[in-house]
Structure of Carboxylic ester hydrolase:
Amino acid sequence: MISCAPALREVARPIAERHVAVDTGTLQGVPGPGETVAFLGIPYAAPPTGAWRWKPPRPAPSWEGVRVAGALGPSCPQPDRAEKIRKVVVTALGGDVAAIPPQGPKGFGPTSEDCLSLNVFAPAFRAAEKRPVMVWIHGGSFAYERGGEEAAILARRGVVVVTFNYRLGLLGFLAHPALTKESPHHASGNYGLLDQIEALRWVQRNIAAFGGDPSRVTIFGHSAGADSVLMLAASPEARGLFRGAMAQSSSLGESQPLAVAEKDGAVIAESLGASSSDPLYALRAAPVERLLAAQSGVEPVTDGWILPKPIPVAIAEGATDGVPLIVGATAKEWSIFAIHSPPAKDVSGYRELLRKAGESHVNRLLALYPAARDEDVPAASIRYLSDWDFVCPARFVASKRRGRTWFYVASTPVSVGESGARYGAFHGSDVRMLFHDEMGIPLGELAQRTGDAMQRYWTRFAISGDPNEPGLAAWPRYGAQHLDFGDPIQVRGDGDHAGCPVFDEAMRDRLSK
């Protein structure tokens, strides 16, 4: 989901009582949205540049005097594809592309390898207060976007909110035999996840100074950010850094085996002219632009250290059971992807699409998601892929966990009129509702009400470890049912998504190999 949340005012008028001391120096906050104070662009690690490319994050340098934390830090290097996708989405939803600034705090802004910064949004606080903390992990296929002010609106509900950047693309997830060899853990490829862990360590050390309670930290994220949430919940290196987790529209955190990722990295290094005698010197000297041009799909790595096992295996074995979890997806996730990339154009292509799930499952899936004519294919494809790629993985996670788990599906269309009917609750629409992110298009009244309810559930979960509170529809722990964020918000059975039992069988086949 491409975020375009209302920007914070980049006013940096000094307010002496909002000085906060962290372990690297003193910060001065600026006015945030509502009755909040914002501290922007705080370095949580040293620049991962030059000889420090593709190494674990190092401590951030200290500074003298008072640092005015009044502007977001640079975004991590990334192609401009995110901006282009955002324009396609806004156009499809009937919005005004010209109304979305491409740069500055409302866009992704300037980029730099010196990008490991975070932002804190606190309610007007006193030092003695200990509020729950919500740490947002942005999505973007591990290759795009940044942590900005999108989640700041939740601070109005009495929690401290943290957002942050982490290394993206090849800079964040390149594996290579030489990188593995130089690592004391004999691992490579998960530098972006190491950044996420370092940001959480910073929160543990410093969040009390902002009125936050380090014993009540909840991580939450969308898409690749949701994959990150599940990976962190399963990672031994992140254990104890947070109390609760929320994964919105995860694809189940797929990762590459280290050996496969190393081979891919060696091919990339060769394409960049990195010599076999000293490939790391050449890779670390390569201009960022060449690295961006060389990357294609980016995935974390099952490296035996940060990710000891693939996430489906780790979840099935109970690695995440100790962390209360909210997990879910939207009802028509794939409708927004089909704007520029139809998954199938005719019945023959649709059968090929279903065949990817496994030859033995094709006929059952055809019966569950029928498309007898070519004109039936677009709707059937979206319904099938929305379930198979997002809803069913969320349900799988919920069904395999033995810890406290709540499962949701968001079915409320965020737009009104023709675009709302066509695209429904697409990928990222729950984020738009949660953050009241208009993205150049006003939210419908129903979407605003649904978003208000989501904010209450989400912040209540951060406060107490349970999303339920008086005045909201009761949300039971998972047991073959989910909370439908529709009209009305209500509990529904899992039979709404008929292909999920087939997904479970396919996943069992994979896990047994």
Summary: The domain at 16-345+375-512 is CATH 3.40.50.1820 (Rossmann fold). The longest strand covers residues 212-222. The two ends are 33 Å apart (CA to CA).
